[in-house]
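Progress against Task 2.4 (sequence-to-structure conversion) is shown through the following example record, which the project officer requested during the mid-term review.
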Amino acid sequence: MTTRCGFVALIGEPNAGKSTLTNHMVGAKVSIVTHKVQTTRARIRGVAIESDTQIVFVDTPGLFQPRRRLDRAMVAAAWGGAADADIIVLLVEAHRGITEGVERILEGLGDLPQNRHIALAINKIDRVEAPQLLELTKNLNDRFAFEKTFLISAEKGHGTKDLRAWLAETLPEGPWLYPEDQIADLPMRMIAAEITREKLTLRLHQELPYQLTVETENWEERKDGSARIDQVIYVMRDGHKGIVLGKKGETIKAISKLAREELEEFLGRRIHLFLQIKVRPNWLEESERYSEMGLEFKDGN
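Structure tokens generated for the chain above:
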């Protein structure tokens, strides 16, 4: 039996559906999905198996115009993920078409090594009529010579089977990199922190979307098979602490409950989750916060 294995980088603007597609392909929730842009910070890899091929997805942060150090580190991580991959899939939202951001990405694709397989996936196709879709497909292929074009809905699963089959047959021959039952190469501590951060983002997206980060400080396995997880939520100001706590601690309680329930479902066992809030005014400028997120601090220069 000939096995195949390789890396697939999903790139695109924030909110193009990269995390949704990764989760759909892998069949589990490995990448956080929120309606707030720029929620994916680290290069989360999800692992899918299609017949004799192991497909390793590199879910990159969305590509956008960076303004802060964190933004620059995220954009560097995204292009780094694309440059290292065997196949690159550019996701474009059908209803938004060729935006300024997509224009910039098309330019960036021209700078990548020549031997990459680059495909186009037009996502959220259920939002537009067929003539508009055909015109967008033609315009994008006129701008860049994509090897293949797929019309998909990552959320509903339309067209994803064809994409998956093409990825499986296009990846190079070689041994599998991960055990068959492993779906992500991120340490569990990091996945746990991402789950809590997702709940915070969904609940507080109006007030402080990017002003906080979550780290798993301690993970203790218990004799009864459960685990105790201690996490710290870093915020930038004292006022933010009050927002996260909420009236009589209601917000933090609700977030803790949602995060714990999802962790229990993900891990298949009981979890005791303890959250603490700490004020760190300069966390965006601290190199150790970046390494916790799997980003390079120097890339933010």
